[in-house]
Amino acid sequence: MTSTVPNAVPHADTAPPITMFGPDFPYAYDDFLAHPAGLGQIPATEHGQEVAVVGGGLSGIITAYELMKMGLRPVVYEADRIGGRLRTVGFDGCDPSLTAEMGAMRFPPSSTALQHYIDLVALETRPFPNPLSPTTPSTVVDLKGESHYARTIDDLPQVYRDVMDAWNTCLEEGADFSDMNRALRERDVPRIREIWARLVEQLDNQTFYGFLCASDAFKSFRHREIFGQVGFGTGGWDTDFPNSILEILRVVYTEADDHHRGIVGGSQQLPLRLWDREPAKMVHWPLGTSLSSLHGGDPRPAVTRLDRTAGNRVTVTDADGDIRTYRAVVFTGQSWLLLSKIACDDELFPIDHWTAMERTHYMESSKLFVPVDRPFWLDKDETTGRDTLSMTLTDRMTRGTYLLDDGPGKPAVICLSYTWCDDSLKWLPLSPNERMDVMLKSLGEIYPNVDIRKHVIGNPVTVSWENEPYFMGAFKANLPGHYRYQRRLFTHFMQDRLPADKRGIFLAGDDISWTAGWAEGAVQTALNAVWGVMTQFGGSTDPANPGPGDLFDEIAPVELPED
User: Fold this and answer.
1) Contact criterion met (CB below 8 Å) for 348 and 306
2) Would strands 461-464 and 365-372 be described as parallel, antiparallel, or unpaired?
3) Model confidence pTM above 0.90
4) Average pLDDT value for the chain
């Protein structure tokens, strides 16, 4: 509900910002990006060589953008639209300034590599109205038919503060929270690795719920239930209870669930602006070159087939029937596509990598937004003096309701419901209007004197990511015992460790990162792939700015035994 950082953690003003590189691979991607030497270079004899980039989401566009700057010619394939899960949509017939974020909508300051690109294309951010955030006017917590109105956690009953204290105690006693948070902030790699190696071995087989139950601080079922329904930071976490506790620790250690900001005008602007951007500093290509200009404005269509061909090449067939062969291919889509939508040669990857893809566990997620005439929720109830409507956390069908506006008197947007997993699947059979009707009924039980419907000025927009044909889920979330699988996929960019006939295709995207579900993971794995492709073409980094592969042996993820 509030920051997960226990009071014991001192934050010196001069300390570097914490970053979502996380404990598994503590490489300073933000420093790599900021260094004046750049990301590396390839021999002039390789300039203009084509590299296929499959997927036009954030990871694919960043990969293509950085390879173009090195003098290679990226060929981007995209089945749907540029942006991937950075998907911003409007409302038919409404002011175009009204938008809804169907995918990623809130970004923590610890996404430092992501912030590099946000700044590069001059996007503006502002605080996101999470529950009990300082910039959120008010929050209502509604559980078991009982509602509580709050501006800060001190306005809630004592049991909610007890739950927050139990969570902080659980983290401190079971996961060395203060020590790890401090080591990450100070970028103390030896200490990070020491703590994390021990925890990976101890906790790889443990669920999030099991971790809570193992703590005396959470011996109360009531506390665990409230924690699951209301949670910390952005809301309830019971849909994550079956997942590996290691996934949750990565989030809380790096403060990924705190101090969120949204991108003004929508997050999809980031990949779209990179697509059109003409870098002032690059090799081989003339000034004025952009990814868009290299593609004649549009990416290639969907990839339908990938084959391993002679000379350790990869041959790509697209939906138009065009066949091209490449020395390097970067695949940035969700890995399940390689098992279903795309016909793949078994020889593309080692068998243990195929196994890891098959075992990938994706979370379902759904949202529904409606446009409204104004932020009427700021009106005061004449009887209570409270806001008419509040950011709402509940155990009812809606689970999380967010209020988004650009100021009094202007049209605004309500995210009526944001749900995951089983809660998301409950919406799947319903049409957008049917979903809205159920959501308004649920909210009407919490706010019986508020007629939300009379303020709605357009049709709802909705998404169920598990039903999206090129995604089949919202984001990866490891189950207990999946650490080894994740390590295989993340480290795939280190191709000198692979047989010669398994090289040349690189995996990227947030679902192979250690921080899946966060755009930062898409950026980091893109930079890993850029390093891998650069190396494939005989290039190298500047000694003053070593890349993730150059330092791999010093910071490689913990390796658990396979027996």
Assistant:
1) yes
2) antiparallel
3) yes
4) 94
